[in-house]
Amino acid sequence: MIYFGYGSNLLAARIERRLGPCERLGAASLAGYVLRFHKRGGDGSGKGDAFRTGDPGDRLWGALFRLDEGQLAKLDRIEGPGYERRTVQVLLGERGLEADLYAARPEARVPGLPPFDWYKELVLSGARENRLPRDYLDAIEAVPSVADPDPERAERNRALTPRSATPGR
Question: Which residues form the domain of 33?
Fold first, then answer.
């Protein structure tokens, strides 16, 4: 099965910590969708959502991974009840492929909910790792974020990002 990871699952260290080794197929895009940080996470912060706009000019970028059935079942559990798995048509270079992604359920969306700074750093690190377009990186960098009130959780998650990706380190 081919999985389209966006948000924090763009970062190989993050997805592999969750699922074990994954075969990465490359960066891909999805027309008619944008990245929003309005999915309410279990920690109360904003998480990434593949938000369908229907506008063919909109583009969500992500990374494609080949997952086995065990990894997919594990990812279903991790993403939990706030997301639903969908099959979409993505572009890998010039090639169209079917891939599954997780999109936030409408009842899990909270407009204006900011992500924690460490979460945004994971997303940015993954976007850089996959060499996504500069304007896409700029848009992520412009998203307001807040400090996590749990410093241990923040540090645990920051440990996945390259040191150069974390401001002030």
Answer: 2-165
